[in-house]
């Protein structure tokens, strides 16, 4: 097959500046276990906005192709790339999602078995597009799956825009729930933040059999969607101050607080607030904090309440697979499609990002070929 020479891609050259559409080289030689993929769509994540703004606390090697929640069809395969990461056969035309890399041979991969912390990790959207393999971002007509990346074949029953959710947002939620452990039928679960991750977390808690789910967030349209995903009680941060929010949570939990809590808001103050709200002996999972913000807490609360506080970063390829399986099974029970707030072409990337920045979108999807 004759490979395309270039790919139209949305390139960030300076933080906070307009993004240009550039012709980026397509690798003409594929390494063993690598894939060239025609990207069907890429959903837009809050992390994309933060990277574009320059507010992430992660290293970014500009210039980069933005986007990391992509799904695409295989157009070329390197040697020994005919299986996905769970043993399913792959061929030209199959749809896949793919992960950041892990080396499999560093301390964190082998001893700790936490590939998301891999010492040699390569992450899509963070590597420069000026060096091979160039196509390391999702807002592009083509993407390159490097040999060390996990890859999962998308079930036929899952449409592209929902598969893209599994490439970041949903796999992060699945990883967080795996670390917290079983949601018991006696548990009240608190979810802080009603963006895409928080809404997906509400759905997982509901399916997991939580006794009650409390969601804290805004605006009202997202709180309504939180109820559709399974929240029993919603609390608006626009209408209630921290003291009022805590009072409602205590009332809803018989004065004890929630047994499990998940922070997906991204606001540093939410962490301190969550520590005050959760029950004695609770498990508190922090996922949304990737910025440089700081907050003052009282550490004795963790000790006196015997809390288990966790952090969860990203997800490994098992979480991509679990996210796809969850959507395939529950897409008729949960309103996943309502998370998709709009569709954009590649040339409208700046409009889409600015609308995300101003909270006019929940989870828009970019189609590079439109």
UniProtKB/TrEMBL annotation:
What the record says about family reads: Belongs to the zinc-containing alcohol dehydrogenase family.
Name what cofactor the protein needs: Zn(2+)
Signal peptide positions on this chain: none
Q: One GO molecular function term?
A: zinc ion binding
Q: Which PANTHER family does its entry note?
A: L-THREONINE 3-DEHYDROGENASE
Q: Does the keyword Metal-binding apply?
A: yes
InterPro entries, from UniProt?
ADH-like_C, ADH-like_N, ADH_Zn_CS, GroES-like_sf, NAD(P)-bd_dom_sf, Zn_alcohol_dh
Residues annotated as domain Alcohol dehydrogenase-like N-terminal: 32-156
What keywords sit in the KW lines? Metal-binding, Zinc
Q: Which residues form the Alcohol dehydrogenase-like C-terminal domain?
A: 196-328
Its protein name is Alcohol dehydrogenase
Question: Which Pfam families does the UniProt entry name for this protein?
Answer: ADH_N, ADH_zinc_N
């Amino acid at each position: 097959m004759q490979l395309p020479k270039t790919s139209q891609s949305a390139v960030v050259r300076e933080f906070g500046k307009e993004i240009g559409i550039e012709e980026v080289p397509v690798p003409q030689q594929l390494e063993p276990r690598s894939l060239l993929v025609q990207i069907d769509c890429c959903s837009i994540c809050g992390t994309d906005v933060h990277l574009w703004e320059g507010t992430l606390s992660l290293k970014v090697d500009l210039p980069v192709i933005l986007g990391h929640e992509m799904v695409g069809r295989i157009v070329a395969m390197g040697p020994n790339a005919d299986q996905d990461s769970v043993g399913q056969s792959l061929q030209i035309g199959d749809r896949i999602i793919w992960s950041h890399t892990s080396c499999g041979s560093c301390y964190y991969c082998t001893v700790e078995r936490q590939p998301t912390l891999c010492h040699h990790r390569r992450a899509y959207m963070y590597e420069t597009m000026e060096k091979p393999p160039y196509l390391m971002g999702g807002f592009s007509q083509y993407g390159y799956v490097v040999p060390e990346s996990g890859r999962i074949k998308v079930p036929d029953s899952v449409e592209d825009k929902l598969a893209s959710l599994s490439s970041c947002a949903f796999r992060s939620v699945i990883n967080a729930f795996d670390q917290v452990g079983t949601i018991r039928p006696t548990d009240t679960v608190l979810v802080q933040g009603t963006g895409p991750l928080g809404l997906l977390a509400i759905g997982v808690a509901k399916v997991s059999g939580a006794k009650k789910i409390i969601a804290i967030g805004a605006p009202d349209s997202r709180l309504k969607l939180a109820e559709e995903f399974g929240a029993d009680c919603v609390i608006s941060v626009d209408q209630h101050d921290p003291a009022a929010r805590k009072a409602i949570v205590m009332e809803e939990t018989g004065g004890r607080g929630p047994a499990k809590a998940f922070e997906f808001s991204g606001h540093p103050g939410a962490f301190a607030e969550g520590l005050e709200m959760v029950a004695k002996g609770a498990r508190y999972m922090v996922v949304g904090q990737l910025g440089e913000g700081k907050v003052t807490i009282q550490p004795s609360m963790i000790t006196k309440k015997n809390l288990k506080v966790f952090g969860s970063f990203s997800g490994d390829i098992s979480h991509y697979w679990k996210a796809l399986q969850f959507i395939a099974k529950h897409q008729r029970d949960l309103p996943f499609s309502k998370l998709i707030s709009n569709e954009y072409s590649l040339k409208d990337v700046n409009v889409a990002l600015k609308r995300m920045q101003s909270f006019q979108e929940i989870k828009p999807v970019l189609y590079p070929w439109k």
